[in-house]
Amino acid sequence: MKWLQDLFIRLLSPWIPFVRKIQPKVRYRVLTACFMADLVLFCIVRYVLMKESYFYNTICGIFIMILIAIFSLDRKLERRTWHKGLSVAWFGMCILFTISDFLVSKKACGLGIILAFVFTGVFFVWQNNSRKDLLWKSLKDAVKLSFLLMALISFLFRPFFEGGRYAGIFTNPNTFGLYLYVIFAIYMSDLDWNVETGKKLRKAWPTYLQLALVIFYISISQARTAMLTVSGILLLWIVLRIVLCQKSHKWKETIKGFLVLTGISICCYPVFFAGVRHLPKVIGHPIIFEEDVLYMSNGEKIEGIGEKMLAESDNIESVQIPERSEKKELKENSIIGRLMASLDGNSTLNKISNGRITIYKAYMKKLNWKGHRRITLTVNGKKVSHAHNNWLQFAYTYGVPAMLLYLVITILSVIRSIRFYLTNRRRNATYAFLIPAICVGFVIATMTECLFLPFEIFPAFMYWFAFGDLFDDSLAEIVE
After folding, report:
1. Are 71 and 31 in contact (CB under 8 A)?
2. d(C-alpha 93, C-alpha 405), whole Å
3. What letter would DSSP give residue 383?
4. N or C: which end of the chain has fewer CB within 10 A?
5. Strands, DSSP E only, in 315-411?
6. pLDDT tens by residue, 340-369
7. What is the rounded CA–CA span in Å between residue 138 and residue 167?
8. Is the C-alpha dihedral spanning 410, 411, 416, 419 positive or negative?
C-alpha cells in the first residue's frame, strides 16, 4: 500500500504548483465538467458507438479520471492510513480480476487494473484535499445538472405511450430506473443535510421538488429493481434518522422532512404526468432512437431486440437448462444445486422474476475458477445479456475466487458506509448520507441486475467511486 501511495506522490506531485495557480472556482467548474463528461459516456456514447463502446468508454473514462485527480490537487500529497481489511480485499480482488484477464482473454478486460490504479489514485488525491466537501459538491452538481437536462429533453421530446413503461432518454426503462436510483441517493443526501442542519423550507424546496420528480420517473418506468432499491434507501434513511433522533431529539425536523417530501410528491405527480403525456405532442418533434423498445406494463415487449450490455459477436457460449420433467437430473449433492433446483420448480417465482431462476441456473452450470471470455450467455437458444446478479456475474466472468473477494467487498462497503455516516454526518454533512445510500442501494440493485463496469454503467461508477471515503482510515471520528 505504501509503495502504491509513493507512486501516486511521484506521479502527481509535479502538477501541484500548476494547479494551485488556477482559481478554486475554476478548478471546481472543471471537475464538474469532467463528471458531466463521464455521464455523457454513459448516456450517449453507449448508443452512438455501439460496436466498440467499451473501448471508447474505457479510454475516455480513464483520461477523465486522470483529469479529476490532477484538478483535485490543492496541497502536498502525504501517505494516508488505509483500512487494512478493505484494502487487502480490494487489491486481492483486483489481482484475481487481472489474472482472469490473462488466463481468459476478454473484450471487457482491465477492470482490475482500472480499480487498482485509476480509482485508488483519485481516492488518494481526494483524501489529501483540504476541502473534500467541495469535491463531492462538484460531483453532485454534475449529476444534478445532467438529470435536469435529461428531464427537460424527456418532457419536451420523449413521447409517452399509453400502457407502456417510460424510459426517459434511455432505450430501456430498467436502465432508466437504475440511473434514477443514484439520482435519488444524491437528492436524499441533500434532504438529510437539510434535516440535520434544520434548513428552512423556503430554501430547501428545490430538493423536495426534484426528489418528487425522481420518484415520479421511477413510478412510470415501472422498474421493479429501481423501486425496490429506492425503497431500501428511503427505509435506510428513516432507520438511521430514528437512531440519531434518540440522541439528538431532532424528531420534528425528521418527521417534517418526510411529510413534506410525501406531500410534494403527491401534489406534483399529476402535473408531471400531464407534462410527460402532452408536452411532446405540443412540441411536435419527438426523439425516437433506433434501439428503442416499447416495454408494456403487462410485460410484453414490442419490436424488441432485447437489452444489450456490451456489443459482442455471435460466438457466445450456449447452455441448455432442462425443463421441470427433467428436474431429477439437476438434483446435485451440493446445497446450492438442490436450492436452485427447488427454486426452478416454482414456475410462478420464475415467471415473476422474468425467468431469472433459469438464468441463474444456466450461469451456475458454467462456473469455474478462471472465468469466461464473455458476459453474455445463450440459455435454451435465447441470448441473455448478463446474469442479472452481480455475485453470479463476477463468478462467471472472473472465476469463483474473485467472486468471494467481491462478496467481502460488498459486506465491508455496507458496514463501513453506515459507520461513516454515523461518525461523519456533522463534518461531512453535505454528502454523508450519499455514501451509505449508494452502497446499500447498489447491493440491493445487484441482487437482480448486473452492474460492474465503471465506464459502462453509471451506478457501477458511483459505487466504485464511493470507496474513496471508505478506504481512508485516518479520519478522526466524531463521537457524540
Report:
1. yes
2. 6
3. E
4. C
5. 318-319, 377-379, 382-384
6. 555 555 555 555 566 788 888 888 888 999
7. 27
8. positive
